[in-house]
Each structure stands twice: as structure tokens, then as C-alpha cells.
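Hey, can you fold this one?
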Amino acid sequence: MTHRILGVDPGLRITGYGVIDVVSGRARLVEAGVVTPKIGGTLEQRLHELHEGMSAVVAATRPDAMVVEEVYTTYKNPRTAVMMGHARGVLYLAGAQGGVPVHTLGHSLVKRALIGSGAARKDQVNQMVTHLLGLRSRPHPNDVSDALALALAFANMRDHRSILVSRPA
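Sure. Predicted structure:
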């Protein structure tokens, strides 16, 4: 049975997404990219563009599950948390309108699942995503790699079997 998972790295400037299929414990890239609302637009316009873009991804790929990265911020940046909350809200709405269950994972949990350390660097995550999906080149920008990492980690935890193993040579 095939499980299709959409990973989403939310942002108001760039939202990365990655869709994988998992069949018999193996992950395969379906589609990946970014949704980029116009920076000069009002918050309402940017949220609308983000919602429209993600709704189109959901409609085109028809995932079984959607996993969105949790918001992480420090007390020094409460505005960032509020803005990310807006972005995550319209992403959740796009999933719900498409009939897709939406889940969350924290970035340190994803890094631990893929690299073995919650403090792993973005380039390490990108390299592991490239390896696990058997890609010829690294996903760019890092928002795409992060979204694919979310999907891979969720698939691994969901199925309780490891897809995070080395690919055959």
C-alpha cells in the first residue's frame, strides 16, 4: 500500500513543500517546491496567496497526510511566533479543505530522526534527505529540504518501520 505524505516548512516569504510516496518501507520523491507570496503585499494578500498555493499543491498531489513544522521562537521574538501562527493557520486550512489530516513535528525531533542529533545543521539534513530519496542533486532552497525531512520523519514514525536506512548502492 502506498502512503503519500506532504511535508511543509511554513513561512510568509518562502514555504517549502515536499511530497513523498512510501511503499514497502521505501520513500520516493513525488514533487517538491516552494510557495512564495509577494513580499510587498499586505499580510492578508500574502496569507491568501499562501493558502491558494498550498491548496493547489494539496489538490494536485492528494496526500494521505500533511505534516507542518512546529513554530519555534524565543521570548526575544514573539512577533515571529505570531506571524508564523498566521501562516500555519492558512496551511492547516488548506489541508482541512482538501480532506487531509494535518500533523506537526518539531524541527529538533526531525533532525534526531534523520541525523541522530537535534542540533544537526541544515546542510546535514539536506545531505541526508538527498541520500534517503536517492536524488542526484540536493534540494534547493533549504525550505524544500526541510519539508522533505518532515515528510520522511513522519513516515518513519507513522509506519513504525525504518525508512531511514541506507539505500542500496
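Confidence is low (pLDDT under 50) at residues 160-169. Let me know if you want another pass with a different chain boundary.
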